[in-house]
Specification:
Keywords: Membrane, Transmembrane, Transmembrane helix. It is built from six helices and no strands. With 128 residues, it is mainly α. The chain folds into two domains: 30 residues; 83 residues, no CATH class. Helix 2 packs across helix 5. The longest helix is centred in the N-terminal third of the chain and has 25 residues. The protein is elongated, with a radius of gyration of 24 Å. The mean pLDDT is 90.
């Protein structure tokens, strides 16, 4: 009977090891051409910060809106406002907040919560 349980245990361990090897090395999951709305909220917010940084360099509000449309949001200016206010309320990185506030202001969505950060905003195209 003891031999039976040892055989079962060895079989389970061997099966787990083989499954892990196949799953991690031979045939791992690959995501190719996943739609942007499928990104986790954190990565959508990071993408929005990147677009805001680009907006600081070129001041192209229409281009920023078009780049953010790929996230699948129906109202891009409202989305930028919500992300900006989320960053402010969660005390995220000050530079990211400044970038988002500049984009929100460029889209006409500057709120009283954002105003202190907008006053600290450097001119477009400068690095400070």
């Amino acid at each position: 009977m003891q031999r039976f349980f040892i055989s079962i245990g060895i079989g389970i361990v061997a099966g787990l090891l083989a499954g892990l090897f196949i799953g991690w090395n031979l045939a791992p999951t690959e995501y190719i051409n996943s739609p942007m709305p499928a990104l986790a909220e954190r990565y959508q917010q990071e993408y929005t910060v990147m677009i805001a940084e680009g907006y600081l360099l070129d001041a192209d509000a229409l281009g920023a809106v078009e780049r953010l449309r790929v996230l699948g949001v129906s109202n891009v200016p409202l989305y930028v406002q919500e992300v900006t206010e989320t960053f402010i309320s969660n005390s995220r990185d000050l530079e990211d907040i400044r970038k988002l506030v500049a984009l929100a202001a460029g889209l006409g969505r500057l709120t009283p919560v954002m105003e202190p950060y907008y006053q600290l905003q450097p001119a477009a195209g400068t690095n400070s």
